[in-house]
Amino acid sequence: MTRGNAEVPEVHREHALREHDRNIEQLRNFNTAAIDAANIAIRSLLLINGGASVALLAFVGAVESGNRELNSEVLAEPIRQFALGVGLAVVTAILAYLVNHLDAVSTGSRMHTWEYPYVEETPHTKKLDVRRRVLFFLALLTAGGSMSLYFIGVWSITGAISNLGI
User: Fold this and answer.
1) Domain span at residue 137?
2) Residue 1 falls inside a structural domain
3) Which of 28, 83, 121, 123 has the fewest beta carbons closer than 10 A?
4) Do residues 99 and 41 make contact, with C-beta atoms less than 8 angstroms apart?
């Protein structure tokens, strides 16, 4: 958005154009970050929780194939915890994407002007920034929940395996 194009001193025009270009570059960077953040979040949290679930299932299979009796109910709770951790990891990835997307939309909603500071917030920008903060906080909570479920799952699986007497 650009406000007016009246007679502007050349020095202001040059500064404004530089600032407008910087703002547009930020928009591009935020858009790229939205995709990258979602990928990193989903890979990291899915890997630890999903990997733990697979490892636990492989362990159960190995024990049972060795003709040992195994009460798989003892291991069901940790599997549930890791599965919930995977679910929260996916929610975190979605929230991370939305936060970065709102950064991009917010940056794009700023008004370009010909006077210092050359890029100004609009009422719409302020609303977007509030939504972004809420989603950011939710992303932190879900990421923390995913990590917590991983640690709780590890804690409960170590206890369960210790009680098996293997």
Assistant:
1) 10-164
2) no
3) 123
4) no
Average pLDDT rounded to a whole number, residues 28-40: 79
* DSSP three-state, residue 6: coil
Q: What percent helix, strand, coil does the chain show, rounded to 5?
A: 80, 5, 15
- Whether 142 is in a domain gets the answer yes
Alpha-carbon span 7 to 20, nearest angstrom: 18
Could you write out the DSSP letters of every residue in 52-88?
HHHHHHHHHHHHHHTT----THHHHHHHHHHHHHHHH
Q: How many domains does the chain have?
A: 1
Instruction: Note the pTM of the prediction, 2 decimals.
Output: 0.73
Q: In this structure, is residue 2 part of a structural domain?
A: no
List Cβ neighbours of 154 (8 Å cut-off, separation of 6 or more): 52, 78
Q: Which pLDDT score, from 0 to 100, does residue 128 have?
A: 94
The answer to whether residue 50 is domain-embedded is yes
Find the farthest-apart pair of alpha carbons in the chain and give their distance in angstroms, rounded. Answer: 88
| Omega before residue 123 within 30° of 0, cis | no
Pull the structure tokens for residue 124.
């719409």
Taking the C-alpha atoms of residue 149 and residue 140, their distance in angstroms, rounded to an integer, is 14
CA-closest candidate to residue 137, choices 163, 99, 94: 99
pLDDT tens per residue across span 82-124: 999 999 999 998 998 899 889 889 888 888 888 877 778 899 9
